[in-house]
Amino acid sequence: MDSLRVVLVSHGASSIVLVLLALATRTSFPDQTQFLWGVTAGVAGGVALMSFYTALSLGHMGSSAALSGLLAAALPVVVALRTEGFPGWLRMGGFLLAAVAIWLIAGSSGAEGAKGDRRAMALALVAGAGFGVFLVAIKYAGNGGVVWALISSRVGSLGTTLLAMLWVGFRRGPARPGFTGRGLQWALIASTLDTSGNLLYIVATRVGRLDVAAVLGSLYPASTMLLAAWMLHERPTRRQALGMGAALVAVVAITAN
User: Which residues contact 39 (CB under 8 A, 6 or more apart)?
Assistant: First the structure.
């Protein structure tokens, strides 16, 4: 329930800001097809987040993050190959190297990856598929405008989250009290970062290839590791350091003309 509250608060707050921004800039409303693409992206993203958080709560953080990240990057690449053509051998090599980097950085090297709880892996697959659909659908929603694309996706994610909260509440009974002040603060910070990242991703898909934007965006475990090293003083393992090096080479190959 706590993870659902985070999604509800962060996406609800960003929706208000986005609607005000759209009204202030007099951005034209998208057509029905573009709006439905956005709602589809939101539903897929909402399901993905709930599945991902549940998989993490089962104690399989590394393998779940790696599996979902790889699948989320793979789906847009397949779609882009069919709709935008072959990206070139250098970029394809970069995509493959990025997949290796994701696995090295987020993947487990211990008993977790060997035993692999089936439920956690199934949830990670659902999460990866959902994130992949989100990355593809939000690109097409973005044809109707960057801000409205994200607003329409919030409609889908908020609706999905509310239904999930009602279902959880029905099965488990009355919910516990809500956020503390600090918890709300972090939820709003997450909202700001999530919204900014999504807006930048939509812009990237409008000016460039879908697969390039999606694969580069899926390298987020690298930034997570750097933040953990900076803020939590966690030292990266040799495997993670190797993954960081692979990610750097992959970025160079993908962004090369």
Answer: 152, 153, 155, 156
* C-alpha R_g of the chain: 18
What is the token pair recorded at 87? 């990206």
> How many structural domains are present in the chain?
1
* Domain with 207 in it: 2-255
Does residue 39 contact residue 152 with C-beta atoms inside 8 Å?
yes
**210: its two tokens:** 């879908």
pLDDT in tens, the chain (257 residues): 566 887 888 889 999 999 999 999 888 888 999 999 999 999 999 899 888 878 777 766 666 777 788 888 899 999 999 999 999 999 999 999 988 888 887 765 444 444 446 788 888 889 999 999 999 999 999 988 899 999 999 999 999 999 988 887 777 765 555 556 777 888 888 889 889 999 999 999 999 999 999 998 888 767 766 776 777 676 778 887 888 888 889 988 888 75
Sign of CA dihedral 57, 52, 115, 240: negative
| Placement of tokens 């897929």 in the chain | 44
Give, to the nearest 10 degrees, the angle between helix 32-57 and helix 118-141.
160
E-strand ranges in 105-206 read none
Alpha carbons 181 and 198: distance in angstroms, whole number: 26
- Amino acid identity at 184: L
